[in-house]
Specification:
Length: 246
Amino acid sequence: MAESSVKCAACWGCDPVSTCQSRQPGPGRCTCGADPLVRAGPPDPLVVKVPKSRRGRRPRTGGPALQSQKPVVPTDTDFIAVAQLELLMATNPYATYMAGLDPLDVTRATPGRLENLLKSLAPEKLTLSPAPGKWSVHDVLCHLADCEVVFAFRLRQALAEDHYVIQPFDQDHWAATYGHYDAHMALAAFSAVRQWNLAFIKGLKPEDFNKSLNHPERGDMKLQVVVETMAGHDLNHLRQVEAILA
């Protein structure tokens, strides 16, 4: 099975993930079973696609058949929007999840959303894997708790040091211990550290969000990107849990 060059955005640097056989052809997926990381970028602004139901039909009033694609002239705004999104995704692969959303609103809401999902979950479904080698709801909750500890360290080091360099970690190696943890304990740990991180973020000055840091693979970024990545990571795994429970 061919290897993909996509890296897991949760840890920003685990081993390359394999192409999902069940969704060929398709993008790489995290080994945890989360949604594929979006790499394709925004729709092509040069082409307006015509719905299939209208292709090749003649208008009732007569005239030539409707063409399948109609080229349009892109504006400078189109190119700028594409370039901005590509730049965001270079440092935060969850940028597309966050379109129009406030990262602080998302991060505040996540503990409660997870708690509500857990209330509606039958105990036997907690450890049910959606596919061989994929994470269960229990594993996802443990992963979120681990990542919140990681985000806590990165946020504080980014503020305390000049040009802090992030240290990636291998999420699968960390997951090797998840069998020892209780899912409700994992959620409690995640929620507690999340509140601690939100208090830290609330105390930052506007200029603090522009502190520079570096990831060995994703390059230079601002502290604000770490906050946005926390929120996008939440949404990614919330969708994963909801898909398992569906």
